[in-house]
Amino acid sequence: MKNQTEKFKLTFWGGAGFVTGVNFMLEGVGKKILVDIGSFTKHEDNDKPLPYNPSEIDFLFVSHAQMEHMGRIPKLIKEGFKGTIYSTQETKFLSELMLTDCLGACGFSFEEEEVKQIMSLWKTISYGEIIDLNDGLTVKMYDAGHILGSSFFDFSYNNNSLIFANSVGSSFTKELSGIEENKKIKYLVIESVYGDKIHKLTDSVQEYVEDIIETTIKREGNVLIPVSSIDKIYLLLREIYSLMGSGKIPKIPVFVDSLLVEKSIGIYEKIFKCEEYGSCNSLGNFVNNFEGLKFVKNGDDLGKIEGPKIIIGGVGVSDKKKIDTYVEKYISDPNSSIIIPDYQIIGSLGRKLQEEEDFIVINEKKMPINIQIETIDGYSSHADHNHLFKFVDDLKDGLEKVFVVIGEEKSSEFLMNKLRDYLGVNSTAPKRGESFELEF
Q1: pTM for this structure?
Q2: For residue 3, what are the contacts with CB-CB under 8 A and spacing of at least 6?
Q3: What are the structural domains of the chain?
Q4: What is the pLDDT of residue 365?
Q5: Predicted local confidence at residue 8, as pLDDT
Q6: I want to staple 192 with a disulfide (CB 3.0 to 4.6 A). Which of 124, 385, 407, 416 is the partner?
């Protein structure tokens, strides 16, 4: 093992001061490594040239399958990347579905053949596995507890570690992640989506959903649920399945308008089991036993179905466009409800619904907001402020610097200041394009 101090350079090309476009670069021992390369909310930002030469990048590590973390991989390939991509098997599978769904709709042009090229460069690794990147640099992967396949990456050199925690799960614990009991790390990159917020209703969230659905049904309205991740759709379906099976809410039609969810059923069935009412504590093949559940495409025949119904969708680029159509249809109906179960990015339709009071513009139409809007953060798969704080507290021994990223500016700065003031940890909230020198 080398003993001479080596200088590395860490640059934050995206996901600093905001949630989207996550893209970090680590340079050292003759290597250039990317951790995530996500898409931005504004499509025109995705078409801008990358701020580095992709042909010089040796490795790309993908933390999990969400567009904000892997959506610009096709652009990286088009601009010359020929290195190796690493992630879990689940992240690779779901990313392929999402990139295929994104064809022609992500703000830059790429073809299906390029998705196949991406997959040919993509290798999968398991939690706890150590990859030798040569010249004394290794990387180990831990379970982030966020969504299926989500990971932390631990880069190690000269017995010093840098961990990228680009997603921290809402139920994350150090023990379950596989991080060693006496693990010492020198540098930490940590997300802060909920850096200034504490989740509410985590214990009574099912009762709250029950009340919303039951009340809406009594008004003869419809329940609309826009969801940002495949995991979240399965989680909500499980809850609704359980509520209907136990008789707590009436059995009404449930429609899922998401090709990504339909295509991903297989992988969830292999991993999770849930067959009986009342014992649905996991995801999986209960979908096949769900009476009244139907997968639809582009709202097929929904307008012909009378009476209350539940409509779920929103995962992927094409699905988000479809959910906008549903919101447009029901936004002026005071008998209907929209449940927003997770974080809404600034500028998104969900965020506008949360912030607007009387009117909203959808597809260039100004429409009155009469629908009942309910926000439930108890379903969030992101750790809240308390969980993030505890995560750093558990790792603070030997920790020299924390980089607080992947959050709105006020959220990142709040967590940064809390870590400084209460833990005495040297923390910073980097700006986009800012670089730091690290000693290993």
Answers
A1: 0.88
A2: 158
A3: 7-197+381-439 (3.60.15.10), 205-379 (3.40.50.10890)
A4: 83
A5: 98
A6: 407
